[in-house]
Amino acid sequence: MNMNPQKMLKQVRDMQSQMMKMQEKLAGETVEAQVGGGMVSAVFTGQGDIVSIKIDPEVINPDDKEMLEDLIVSAVNEGLKKSRELINDRMGSITGGLSGALGSMGLGF
Length: 109
Hints:
Blueprint: H1 5-28, E1 30-35, E2 40-45, E3 50-55, H2 65-104
Antiparallel strand pairs: 1-2, 2-3
Helix pairs in contact: 1-2
């Protein structure tokens, strides 16, 4: 357990820098969720911001607005899920080594 504190601090700073760059990159990436056989789709950035919602005109029925509302909610939830998965995937490549370093110091999770 001979971890050099200065070396560890540098690794943390490097990781912070990498994470900031990855967050900027995620802002430019998108994921799309489609529900109802493509009747409603939602597009999100890699940071979880909604970019657009598209609705097939055939699904617009004034007598059944609840179905359309349900489809929109489903598309948004699925898009958020995909966005989170993208974030976890990208950030995991940066933070993957962190758990090993913490484990060697007796701080593993």
